[in-house]
Each structure stands twice: as structure tokens, then as C-alpha cells.
């Protein structure tokens, strides 16, 4: 194990881009521990904050949309994170988000919008393409044609937002993402450093995965070092942050999600029944939840604010007190549940 980590670290070092050559460093920021670790690692490596932008792809469409799949607090958490570190955050989204694409019937894929640094909103796409029908949840698979949510709502959204912003032309841009080899065998095969799919003759865009060889403990260690309060999902027992009702979720997570926001899970279960195809193929979410022995969460969020503000049952201050750190992070280090996109 020790040797493997060593080899991974050496490869990581050899494949590290020359950071001072880039005009802009974009961190694909979900609000989860891995993208947080990427950002903190960039700070530790001395990348000036002025060059860093956080980009968050809103799964459920335009910021402020009613959550269908994602954690209702994620947008608010991401904004608070950017404010706490004084870096810009730009949201981007597929119009209508997950739900529109799921219910698509003889339609083209929807356009994409993104926030520009001057406060304006850019929009592109949705004018050409195949007329198609979905009416089926994405299926648990590493194949992105089957697990369409990752490509339609994240990967393609980022590409459209980069390709359609003039400011990246003639510039050198680094896109940083937080996939780790430990998460799955398919992620283990990802390149550490490569041309990004938006790289062209007129626009240099590279893709770097700086924590590809990192372990779960290394990720939490850098978060603890910077005393950052992580997304509340981790405090509620999730080991990874993805959509609250991620298609990869296990029985416990679905049951917990149902306890936290019952109306979201009820709608998904109703749609599974309407479509006649379940997310997990061999079992419905309604049946899967029955397998969980977990109690429903003790945090009763009904009628409470999901925003990171004074009405939230979560913490308002963004940083942990140094003297509280050992106690605060203990359970987070211990929870090595790896359920999530592979
Ligand atoms: S987190 Fe899960 S449900 Fe959400 S887009 Fe990714 S794979 Fe799909």
C-alpha cells in the first residue's frame, strides 16, 4: 500500500502542470470534499486567488430552482464557501435541469446558461440536435450514455460554458477536477494531466486532476488543516457529496433523504412507477428503502431553512475553531463510505 501511494505521488508530481503559466484556473466545485481539497491544494501550492474561479453546475437548473435531485443547501453552501475565501463563483446550468431532461418527450436537449464575471448571463445550445424522448431515469453505469445525468448536466455544461466565452480565446486555462483513483476502477484509469476537450488552436485548455492519487484521509487532512466546515451532507452521514438522491445512493442514503426531504423522494418514486423503469433496474427505490435499518435522521428539516443562514439548523460560521478540530473531524475521517458516481 505504502509503495502504491509513493508511485502515485511520483506520477502526480511528474504530471503536474506549470501553474504559473495559466491565466485562469477553473475549479469544478461541487461543494464536496474532493473539490474542496483541490481548491485548498491550489492555495497551498501558491496559486494566486485572483487566478482561481470556482464553477458550480446546478443540477436542477437555474440557481434558486426547486430542488428535484440535489441537496437544497448546496448552492447556498457553495456561495458561502466562495465568500469565505474571497474567490469568485460562477454557476452554470442546463435549462430546466434534471427534471426537464428526464421528462423530455420528442424534444431537443435544452440550452445551457452560465454566469459571466461581469454579472451577465450567457446562453448557448438547444438549437440543433436530435429530437428524442427520455422518460427514464439515468441508470447506474460507468457508461455516460446510459448514466446521462453526468454528461448532460455537468460535463457538457462546462464545455459549452468554456467554448462560448470569448475571454478564454488566446488564453491559457487550467480546469481542475477532483476525481480520485480510490473511488472506482474507472476513475483509477483517468489521466492525471491532459488536454481538456475544449482545447483548440485558438484556446489552450488543459485538465488536471491534482488529487487523483490521494486517499480519503489525505482529503480530510487538508480540509482539517484549513479548518473548513464541510457540506452538511457529511455531518448527516454521507461519505461523498453528490446529488442528495443520487442514482448511486444505497438503501440507507435513500431512507435518510426521504427523512430529510420526503417530497423529493416521493416524487422520484412516483415517476419510477409512472415510467415502469426503476433507477436500480432490479429494485424500486420504495423497496430499496425498506432494506435500510437506519433510523430516519434526527435533524428535522421540515419547515426549517435549507440556506446557510440564521434559520438553518446547520452552522453559520464557515470555519471550525482550532481547539475543536480533533473532535469535529473525527467522524468525518471515520466515514469511508464510497457510494457515489464511479
Ligand atoms: S450525482 Fe448522481 S444523480 Fe447527480 S448527476 Fe451525478 S450521477 Fe447523476
Structural features, described:
It is built from 12 helices and 8 strands. With 342 residues, the protein is α/β, with parallel strands linked by helices. The protein has a single domain (7-242, 303-334), classed as HUPs (Rossmann fold, 3-Layer(aba) Sandwich), CATH 3.40.50.620. It has an 8-stranded mixed β-sheet, sandwiched between helices. It starts with a helix and ends in an 8-residue tail after the last helix. Bound molecules: iron/sulfur cluster.
Question: How many individual β-strands?
Answer: 8
Output the structural class: alpha/beta
User: In which order are the strands of the major sheet placed?
Assistant: 5-4-3-2-1-6-8-7
Bound molecules: iron/sulfur cluster
Main sheet specs: 8 strands, mixed
What is the overall silhouette? globular
Query: Can you name the CATH architecture?
Result: 3-Layer(aba) Sandwich
Overall pLDDT score: 90
Can you tell me the CATH superfamily? HUPs
Q: SSE order in H/E notation?
A: HEHEHEHEEHEHEEHHHHHH
Estimate what percentage of residues fall within beta strands: 5-15%
CATH topology: Rossmann fold
CATH class: Alpha Beta
In angstroms, what is the radius of gyration?
Answer: 20 Å
- What's the tally of helices? 12
The amount of helix comes to 25-40%
- Note poorly predicted spans: none
Amino acid at each position: 500500500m505504502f509503495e502504491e501511494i509513493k508511485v502515485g505521488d511520483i506520477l502526480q508530481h511528474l504530471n503536474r502542470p506549470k501553474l504559473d503559466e495559466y491565466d485562469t484556473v477553473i475549479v469544478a466545485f461541487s461543494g464536496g470534499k474532493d473539490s474542496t481539497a483541490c481548491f485548498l491544494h491550489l492555495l497551498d501550492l501558491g496559486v494566486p486567488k485572483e487566478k482561481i474561479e470556482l464553477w458550480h453546475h446546478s443540477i436542477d437548473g437555474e440557481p434558486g430552482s426547486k430542488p428535484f435531485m440535489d441537496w437544497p443547501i448546496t448552492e447556498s453552501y457553495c456561495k458561502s464557501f466562495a465568500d469565505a475565501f474571497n474567490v469568485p463563483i460562477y454557476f452554470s446550468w442546463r435549462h430546466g435541469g434534471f427534471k426537464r431532461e428526464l421528462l423530455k418527450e420528442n424534444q431537443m436537449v435544452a440550452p445551457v446558461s452560465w454566469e459571466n464575471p461581469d454579472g451577465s448571463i450567457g446562453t448557448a445550445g438547444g438549437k440543433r440536435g436530435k429530437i428524442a424522448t427520455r422518460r427514464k431515469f439515468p441508470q447506474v453505469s460507468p457508461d455516460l450514455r446510459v448514466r446521462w445525468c453526468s454528461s448532460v448536466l455537468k460535463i457538457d455544461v462546462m464545455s459549452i460554458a468554456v467554448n462560448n466565452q470569448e475571454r478564454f480565446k488566446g488564453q491559457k486555462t487550467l480546469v481542475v477536477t477532483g476525481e480520485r483513483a480510490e473511488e472506482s476502477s474507472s476513475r483509477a484509469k483517468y489521466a492525471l494531466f491532459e488536454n481538456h476537450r475544449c482545447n483548440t488552436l485558438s484556446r489552450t485548455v488543459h485538465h488536471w486532476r491534482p488529487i487523483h492519487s490521494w486517499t480519503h484521509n489525505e482529503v480530510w487532512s487538508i480540509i482539517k488543516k484549513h479548518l473548513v466546515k464541510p457540506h452538511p451532507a457529511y455531518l448527516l452521514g454521507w461519505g461523498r457529496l453528490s446529488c442528495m438522491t443520487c442514482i448511486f445512493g444505497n438503501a440507507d442514503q435513500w431512507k435518510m433523504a426521504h427523512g430529510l426531504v420526503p417530497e423529493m423522494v416521493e416524487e422520484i418514486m412516483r415517476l419510477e412507477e409512472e415510467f415502469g423503469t426503476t433507477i436500480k433496474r432490479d429494485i424500486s427505490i420504495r423497496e430499496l428503502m425498506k432494506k435500510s435499518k437506519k433510523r430516519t435522521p434526527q435533524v428535522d428539516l421540515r419547515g426549517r431553512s435549507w440556506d446557510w443562514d440564521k434559520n438553518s439548523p446547520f452552522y453559520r460560521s464557515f470555519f471550525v475553531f482550532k481547539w475543536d478540530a480533533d473532535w469535529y473531524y473525527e467522524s468525518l475521517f471515520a466515514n469511508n463510505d464510497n457510494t457515489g458516481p464511479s
